[in-house]
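Posting for a labmate who doesn't have an account.
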Amino acid sequence: MSIEKLVAQINTLKLETERLVLSKITVNDFDTMVAHEQNEKLMRYIRPITSLEKSKEKIQLCIDDWLGEEGQWLMLVAHLKSESSQSNELIGMVCLNFESLEFKRVEIGYRFHYDFHGKGYAFEAAKCVRDFLFEQVKIHKLLAYCVADHQASYSLMEKLGMQREACLRQHSKLADKKWHDELIYGLLAQDHHTK
């Protein structure tokens, strides 16, 4: 599937796992995702909390049409499946940034509400998106970044088969106003193996 086909299908695309349905964020998800952006515990390792207005603007940009352009984030929200196979509670998201269309390089990120940590949901969702990107979209490389203090995040990257490629020293500041090292992980198409 080309990026153009993905852009054409993104509003109806649904990726399913055993417990989750992943789809492009819609206006129905707005309030929950803004609340996540404003939650200090949830954003601890991602970035400092911004104003409510900025959080709303960011989420609205993700709801607007995704054009598949470099640097434009695509947010896929994760809903729990109910017993009737309909999507239900929104528990988190996986986001994508097509960093280079020419080189088919995509950055992946994820955030799940802490009430659902430790249950394998983030891995389940990220693995599904990883497999879709390599097998359907035919990307060349998947990248992910996290602060070095966030062991749960880089452990998930390693579980996805990604390798640590670099450590950027004192690269970013979080809410604690301290400098943090940032890790870069990558996975090449040639090394991607579904399990």
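Reply:
Got it, the structure tokens are right above this. The chain has a mean pLDDT of 89.
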